[in-house]
């Protein structure tokens, strides 16, 4: 038995504790691992007499792919983090500014007349994907992808599952709308509440990405995080989130749902919704896969902080809008 | 940083389409004792502010023309109205007899577009 104490960097999230403990606990020579997020230390008890330096090398290699590194001395990372946030802030604000400028420009407001066919719904999907709906659907996707990339390694798989869930969900739910009509009619208030929920998630993830919680990590009971981590890695969660985007408030999605509903047929309804989702795919795919690849590049720290700022901006916008839509507050803006 | 964000939002709202205020009420017509207030919905609502008379039975006419965006998801709380408007068409909404000084507000489902009708 021997006790070792290492300093760790990269523990940005409460679930990091569980991840590191899980990985290191699997090692034969390790008896007990305790991660202390507040002090950013890892206490390791080994079964045999182990050289601390050697142990640090071998354990460090195990958790390096997840973005953690071990050291014997506490590293001064504070300054570096502060520098990055000052780079990320103007970039994030500029991106938000461009987004709102695009909304106000009126470029997206050309009308599409006539029957709703799969072709027109594809076009409407293309427009929707850069419209104000991007604030909620895109913002959610960006925050989730960035967070997944930050937390673990199998982000590509999770993102693929998400998009599959979204496309398949639109096919099935669109078909059901056509077939059953009003029975699963989309309730305005339910959709608005889901929108509020999504914006709260975005704000929370955004603050997390920026690193507001880094110093005083808000640590929920680790049982809850174990639960979340378990579903994060399962196939079902990203599929369900993808499918759930069907119900998020977005004027374009809702208009398409009405078209699917009035079509009165499973095939037409499902074609309309599928073409629409396909139209939104390029931008959403760019956001999710783009964030995954940036997250693995050398710009990762800057990317996470910039994404965080963009997500906070979009999240606040969606939250204030959602509250106004529900009549809880007076509308604050008219973009 | 939050302060900057809020500042940005105020900046965006501050210079709203202020030229869009309809004072003369060219979108308000009284016919057979009923007041019709017409609002165009596409990429927002226009006119954003209108002035109409109080004390007469009134109806809101919302015109859509290839409207698929948020403005198609119309909410008018006071009239207890929440519907997705047809992409192209005219929708009539009964707003009862408006009282002076109680503006009627409409917003789209996500709350990003709105309009206001003042009665005097």
UniProtKB/TrEMBL annotation, chain A:
Domain of life, per lineage: Bacteria
InterPro entries the UniProt entry points to: HMA_dom, HMA_dom_sf, UreH-like_TM_dom
PROSITE patterns: HMA_2
Single GO term (MF): metal ion binding
Keyword flag Transmembrane helix: yes
Pfam families: DsbD_2, HMA
Key words of the record: Membrane, Transmembrane, Transmembrane helix
Domain HMA: from-to ranges: 2-71
Positions of transmembrane segments: 84-102, 122-146, 167-186, 192-214, 235-254, 266-290, 302-329
PANTHER family membership: HEAVY METAL TRANSPORTER, HEAVY METAL TRANSPORTER-RELATED
Name the UniProt record assigns to this protein: HMA domain-containing protein
